[in-house]
Structures are given as C-alpha cells and as structure tokens.
TrEMBL record:
One GO molecular-function entry: calcium ion binding
CDD domains, alphabetized: EFh (cd00051)
Name the UniProt record assigns to this protein: Calcium binding protein
Keywords: Calcium, Lipoprotein, Metal-binding, Myristate, Repeat
Domain EF-hand: 41-76, 77-112, 154-189
Family: Belongs to the recoverin family.
InterPro entries named among the record's database cross-references: EF-hand-dom_pair, EF_Hand_1_Ca_BS, EF_hand_dom, Recoverin
Keyword Repeat assigned: yes
Superkingdom of source: Eukaryota
Gene3D superfamilies: EF-hand
Length: 212
C-alpha cells in the first residue's frame, strides 16, 4: 500500500482535527485521547503512536509533529518507516523489543485488521438484508473494536511466529537492525499503520462504519 501525502489529504486531516478540537489544526495540541478518535485505534495503539509522534516529549502532539509523523509513514522510505514504527512500540526506549512489547504491537495490528474486516462484512450484510438487519454494536469501528474477542492463544502463537521471523540471533529480543531487515524483506510489514493514515483521509461510501 502506498499513501501519498498531498494538499488535499492535508486539508482533510485539518478538517477532521477542527471537528474534533473545535479550532484550527495548527493551533491544536493533540492528546492520546485525541489520537484514539483521530486514528480510530485502541488506547494502547494510540499511546504508542502518540509517543513516537511527540518528538519534543512534552506530552502533546502539535501540528508540525503530527505532519512529520504522517509524512514518514506516507513516504517511500522503508528505513524511515521502520525507524518510526520501531520507536512507536519500543515502549521503554531501550532500542529493544521484548515479548510484551511485541504482544502489544500485534494486538493493536490484529485489532485494526479484524475491525476493518468485520465492518466490511457488516456493510455487505446490511446492503443485502436492508435496514432491518441488526447492526447493534457495529455502527462504527470504535464499537466494533470494543466488542472484539481476540483469542489469547492465537496472540501467543502470533508473537512466537513474529520472533521466529525477526529474531535472527534467537536471543529472545528484537533489535532495531533486525526489525529494519524484517520491514525491508516484507513489504506488508507496515501496511496496518499505513491503513490508519489512509483511512484518516478517506471515507468509504455506503459503509456502515465511519472512520471517526
């Protein structure tokens, strides 16, 4: 997936921030809670993404920081994306991903993917069966996400599989160099995060699930 950050996309993002905060994007200081709404992710995912965008470490993300992070994710540089995504999930900042950090990362990625799939399926069913189709708890992605039940055993298997693919020296930790190699070898490695940027500036017509 490739998302190009252009003037139209920037204006759309500004519009959504103004709807969320009630003032111009350039004057806003975005909190973790704002990121939850803006990117439609769970609290853990919003916290991690907010941390990596907050380059001055003051606890909020200003417009220039938001634009900088989105620019990296929308660029063609795999190395830049890998660096940003690694810092997003390196929660303690020690330049190493341990199993708990990878578990949180994969939980967020799987939640995003499952939410999108469920929303698309519900939209199809609603079109097929009409307005009488029961869409309770499926009217937007946030409610879908909150009602997901992700199997813990499957998550554990996903973490084990991730380490098998990425932890080349098998020391039980993932370094930045190992993560960068993984991203370079797998073009889909960052697609879930790019999806959030793309969804931020695009709304699917006729769907039951909104992006905000």
């Amino acid at each position: 997936m490739s998302f190009k950050l252009n003037k139209k996309a920037i204006n759309q993002i500004k519009k959504k921030i103004k709807e969320l905060k009630g003032k111009k994007a350039e004057k806003c200081e975005l909190t973790i809670e704002d990121f939850e709404s803006l990117f439609d992710v769970d609290h853990e995912g919003a916290t991690a993404l907010h941390k990596s965008f907050d380059t001055d470490g003051n606890g909020t993300v200003e417009w220039k920081e938001l634009l900088g992070g989105i620019t990296v994710l929308s660029s063609d540089s795999v190395e830049q994306k890998a660096e940003l995504l690694f810092s997003t999930w390196d929660l303690d900042g020690n330049m190493i991903l341990d199993r708990s950090e990878v578990l949180q990362m994969l939980t967020s990625v799987i939640t995003i993917a499952a939410t999108l799939q469920l929303c698309d399926k519900v939209s199809e069913l609603k079109k097929k069966f009409g307005q009488n189709f029961d869409t309770q708890n499926f009217e937007d992605r946030k409610s879908v996400r909150e009602n997901l039940n992700i199997d813990k055993e499957s998550l554990t298997e996903a973490v084990n599989s991730f380490f098998k693919q990425v932890d080349n020296d098998e020391n039980g930790e993932i370094s930045y160099e190992e993560f960068k190699i993984y991203c370079e070898n797998d073009p889909n490695a960052v697609s879930a995060f790019e999806e959030r940027i793309q969804q931020l500036t695009y709304k699917k017509k006729g769907g039951a699930c909104s992006i905000m």
